[in-house]
Design brief:
3-stranded antiparallel beta sheet, single chain, alpha+beta, Transferase(Phosphotransferase), domain 1, about 325 residues, binds adenosine-5'-diphosphate, binds magnesium ion, 5-stranded antiparallel beta sheet
Length: about 325
C-alpha cells in the first residue's frame, strides 16, 4: 500500500476523532485496551489464516472436495485447474477473494470466495456491546456462514437479488458464489458527495436499495448489516445486489435495517443531498412495505452520534485485511 494512502487514512482518522463525542472516544479507548489481548490473537490468527487461503493449492484442494460444483470447468476425467487468487478489499471481517480459473476451452471463470474469519466473530461479539447494533445470534465463523448460505438460498427463492451460491465448506468455513461485476453502492454515494450532484443513476440505485430491502423483509429476512457498502450495483442487469448476509436473521430487525442503512448514507453524503437520498430510499421502501416512522426516528436518534464512527469504518474498508494488518504493525 502506498505511503501516501497510509498518511491519508491517519489524517482522516484524526479529523473524524475530533468530530466525535469525547465520551464516546473514551469509551472506545477503554474497550480497546480491555480487549487488547483478545484483539491481538484474533488479528494474528485471521492474518495467518488469510495468508494460507491466498495459495492456489489450498483453493484447488477445496475445489476437489466439491468437484461436482465445479464440473462445468473440466471434461470428464480431467483434473481441475488451480485458481488464480486475488485478494479483494471492501470487507473488514473476513477474507474476500476472486478466483479466476481457465477451463479446457480457454474460457475464464470467475468466482467470489469468502473465508469466514475469527475477526468477524470478534465484530459480532463487540458491536452489540459498544453500539446499538442488535445482538448477533450466530457469532462463530461456521454459524455466520450457515446463516449466510441458508438465508441466501431463501432470499433467492423469493426473488431478492443475491449472488448465486456455488459451493460451501462448513469444515473450512468457506463459501463460493458467482462473482458479480459492478460498483459498490457506497462508492457511488461517495461520488455523489464529491460532485455535489444527484445523478439519475444514483437515484435509481438508492431507490432499488429501498425496494430491495423491502423485498428481503417481505421474504421474512432482516439483513442487520444493511449498509451501502454491502450492496453492489450491477449495470449489465441494472440491479442492486445485497452481498453480505452473514449477520442476516429472521428476528424482526426491520426498523434497525432501515435506520442503519440511512445512517450510513448520512455518513457518506451529509447535508441536503443526503436528505434527498434518504427520502428516495424511504419512498421506494414504502411503495412495497409499510414504514414504521416512529421506530425509524428513534433509531436515527440512537445512531446520530455514531456517524463519525461509521465514517471511520468506511475509511477502513478501502484496505484489504492484510494491508490493515501491516498498517497496524507500523
Ligand atoms: N458476489 C460478489 N461478487 C463480487 N464481489 C463481491 C461479491 N461479494 C462480495 N464482494 C466484494 O467483497 C467485499 C467484501 O464482501 P463482504 O461479503 O461484504 O465481506 P465482509 O463480511 O468482510 O464485509 C465487498 O465489499 C465486495 O467488494
Ligand atoms: Mg461486508
Amino acid at each position: 500500500m502506498a505511503k501516501k494512502q497510509k498518511l491519508k487514512i491517519r489524517d482522516r482518522y484524526i479529523n473524524i476523532i475530533k468530530r466525535t463525542n469525547p465520551w464516546m472516544v473514551l469509551r472506545f479507548l477503554v474497550i480497546t485496551i480491555a480487549c487488547f489481548p483478545v484483539w491481538i490473537w484474533v488479528v494474528l490468527f485471521s492474518y495467518l489464516h488469510s495468508l494460507r487461503w491466498r495459495q492456489p493449492k489450498i483453493g484447488l484442494d477445496l475445489m476437489k472436495r466439491h468437484s461436482l460444483a465445479f464440473s462445468n470447468l473440466v471434461k470428464e476425467g480431467q483434473p481441475l485447474p488451480a485458481p488464480k487468487v486475488t485478494v479483494l478489499s471492501g470487507g473488514i471481517s473476513n477474507l474476500s477473494l476472486l478466483w479466476e480459473i481457465n477451463d479446457a476451452q480457454g474460457n475464464v471463470h470467475e468466482y467470489f470466495v469468502k473465508v469466514f474469519l475469527p475477526l468477524g466473530t470478534f465484530w459480532a461479539w463487540i458491536c452489540p456491546i459498544v453500539s446499538p447494533f442488535p445482538d448477533v445470534y450466530a457469532k462463530l465463523s461456521h454459524e455466520r456462514m450457515s446463516m449466510d448460505v441458508v438465508l441466501r438460498t431463501h432470499l433467492a427463492e423469493h426473488g431478492a437479488h443475491v449472488a448465486r451460491l456455488v459451493a460451501f465448506d462448513p469444515v473450512k468455513k468457506v463459501m463460493v458464489t458467482e462473482f458479480l461485476k459492478g460498483q459498490m453502492v457506497d462508492q457511488l454515494l461517495g461520488e455523489v458527495d464529491k460532485s455535489g450532484e444527484l445523478s439519475e443513476l444514483a437515484k435509481t440505485v438508492v431507490q432499488q436499495c429501498g425496494a430491495g430491502l423491502a423485498k428481503a423483509h417481505q421474504a421474512g429476512v432482516c439483513l442487520v448489516d444493511a449498509q451501502p457498502a454491502n450492496c453492489m450495483w450491477v449495470p449489465d442487469q441494472e440491479k442492486v445486489y445485497f452481498l453480505d448476509l452473514e449477520f442476516s436473521s429472521r428476528w424482526d430487525h426491520r426498523v434497525w435495517d432501515m435506520g442503519f442503512f440511512m445512517c450510513y448514507m448520512k455518513a457518506r453524503v451529509p447535508g441536503p443531498l443526503g436528505k434527498t437520498l434518504r427520502k428516495l430510499f424511504l419512498d421506494s421502501y414504502e411503495a412495497e412495505n409499510p414504514v414504521d416512522w416512529a421506530g425509524i426516528a428513534e433509531t436515527d436518534k440512537l445512531l446520530k452520534e455514531y456517524v463519525p464512527v461509521f465514517q471511520c469504518i468506511l475509511a477502513l474498508r478501502e484496505f484489504t485485511a492484510e494491508e490493515l494488518f501491516e498498517e497496524f504493525l507500523t
